[in-house]
Amino acid sequence: MTAQIWFEDFEPGRVLESGLREITLADIDAYAALTGERHPVHMDDDFARRAGFRGRIAHGLFGLALIEGLKAELGCFETSVVASLGWDKVRFHAPLEPGDRVRLALEFVDRRPSSKPGRGIATERGRLIREDGMLITSGDHVVVLLNRPA
Question: Which of 6, 8, 65, 133 has the CA that lies 20 to 30 A from 32?
Fold first, then answer.
């Protein structure tokens, strides 16, 4: 686990990396059950194969959610990030398949003071990367980051 990162610690160019997480069919099923998004490319092996995949694939937004989950496991923003202002430049580069082992590379891109005292606006670039180096999902996340407590 990485130490808490406050606005003052957010240095553009720094990259944090998570451990690996293996994707399972149960993960895909749980995401479909939670969201109600049951497109057959995610739920039916035969349909997914006819669509050009090796079998069922995970939802693109599941990959994006994994970026946030793997970031949370780092533990470095638990009390310093207080809001998400949105995602930009989200891309799904390759399918996420059951059995894939993925990690997060989180790059600090930019920061600026906020108009409200005690906080700033920071942009982090999340990249979900398969164990073999293949980029799966990426996006820039803008967050409200508190200054270090006095």
Answer: 133
